[in-house]
Design brief:
With 409 residues, the protein is α+β, with helices and mostly antiparallel strands. The chain has 2 domains: 291 residues, Jelly Rolls; 101 residues. 15% of the residues lie in helices and 30% in strands. The chain has 6 helices and 22 strands. The longest helix is centred in the last third of the chain and has 17 residues. It binds zinc ion. The site of zinc ion has 6 residues, from strand 15 and strand 16. Zinc ion binds next to strand 15 and strand 16.
């Protein structure tokens, strides 16, 4: 019987659980030790630790305390792992809890988190997604249903002291270029809401003051939000500390490439069944700085797409030089305008792009001055025909405003 190394009680605060943490720091003690070749299970909170409720108001999204995220299960120590090794992680399986067959998608308010299209959608919105086995659908977004590709948004190993220092130094330098910006350019260490796992006393206080926030992806992987990092994948992580210290969380039932609404996937608590192994000295052997992975043999088969193009010319018509960020934003905005013609509100369309198995690609980065990004929208997830034809779009859905919360209400 496979041992569950971390159990979570969704009725209790994640702060009461000593087997989770919400900062990266080399001093966070291992919650258990396993051997290369061992398999084990980890249960995970949703990334906010249960702050978001299954209801029809977005006030919890508006008021979410983002300094608490992400609650990660671990770190798990692997015997024999040393800096310079590669930790091989097989995601053998991953799933939802019997007691919570739903997840949430949020559009963060510009004043609290923002998102990829925050200038266009500055207010908080929420959609609740119900799970039916493999599938998800939402009472807040009619006409769409799709198979989930469950994955951890966040997984990686503990940083070394030196690497942690590099992260904090370079992110502070960026933050300081515009410290008043809303949303912020980076999230600096913040002790008051830090949860340092089993670390106690002055050591915990010290680590909380310098522990890296879990928001960005970094060299160790971390919050990469790669929708294809799903069950059946094998991932190769750089190791920076003795024992490696593997942690994970931020489970997603499904997500579109880019996780564009920021609370962007269908977020949920759940469990993962993992197996670990080691490649000694693997970082140098293979020239690896960031993780690499092999895909799962299982994936939902959506083969028919409408593909939206975007170029690096912004909403004001200004020309940018090969800017993929702007090009992908235009592809997303083009898809949203298109979906509105079938009755969706802009926010509903935005949430579909954040949650459904949408593919985003960097298509061209050399044809000056325009980068070209593409967004692949699967047509089969809709229960009506979304392809263009001579008769024009049908009013397929009665779009209604998503649960919404204004700041000045
Ligand atoms: Zn997430």
């Amino acid at each position: 019987m496979t041992e569950t190394l971390v159990k979570v009680d969704l009725t209790k605060s994640a702060y009461e659980n000593e087997n989770v943490h919400n900062r990266w720091h080399p001093d966070i003690p291992m919650i258990a030790w396993v051997k290369p070749g061992d398999d084990f299970k980890l249960e995970c909170y949703d990334w906010t630790g249960g702050q978001i409720k299954n209801d029809d108001s977005a006030e919890d999204i508006r008021d979410v305390d983002l300094s608490q995220v992400h609650f990660l299960s671990g770190p798990v120590g692997v015997k024999g792992a040393e800096p310079g090794d590669l930790l091989v992680v097989d995601i053998l399986d991953i799933g939802v809890f019997e007691e919570q067959q739903w997840g949430f998608n949020g559009v963060f308010a510009k004043q609290n988190g923002g998102g990829f299209l925050t200038e266009h959608f500055p207010e908080a919105r929420k959609s609740i997604w119900d799970f039916e086995g493999l599938f998800a659908k939402s009472r807040h977004i009619p006409g769409v249903r799709f198979a989930g590709l469950i994955h951890p948004g966040l997984i990686g190993c503990l940083p070394s002291r030196q690497l942690l220092g590099e992260w904090n130094t370079r992110e502070k330098a960026l933050f300081d270029t515009d410290p008043e910006r809303v949303p912020g350019l980076a999230n600096m260490p913040y002790a008051p809401t830090a949860h340092m796992g089993r670390l106690q006393g002055d050591a915990a206080k010290q680590a909380a003051a310098e522990g890296a926030r879990t928001v960005p992806p970094r060299e160790h992987g971390g919050n990469c939000d790669i929708k294809d990092l799903s069950r059946g994948c094998r991932i190769f992580f750089p190791v920076y500390v003795d024992g490696a210290g593997l942690s994970m969380g931020d489970l997603h039932f499904s997500q579109g490439d880019g996780e564009i609404t920021f609370c962007g996937a269908i977020e949920m608590p759940g469990w993962a069944h993992l197996r670990v192994d080691l490649i000694k000295g693997g970082m140098a052997k293979y020239g690896i700085k960031n993780p690499i992975f092999q895909p799962s043999p299982i994936k939902p088969t959506y083969n028919d797409y409408l593909i939206f193009e975007g170029i690096s010319v912004d909403e004001q018509g200004k020309q940018h030089y090969l800017d993929v960020h702007i090009a992908y934003r235009q592809a997303c905005l083009n898809a949203i305008e298109y979906l509105k013609k079938f009755g969706y509100t802009g926010a509903q369309a935005y949430s579909i792009l954040g949650t459904a198995p949408v593919e985003g690609k960097v298509s061209g980065v050399v044809d000056v001055p325009n980068a070209c990004a593409t967004l692949f929208l699967p047509t089969e997830i809709f229960d009506f025909d979304i392809k263009p034809n001579a008769n024009g779009p049908i009013q397929a859905v009665q779009g209604s405003e998503l649960p919404i919360a204004f700041w000045n209400k």
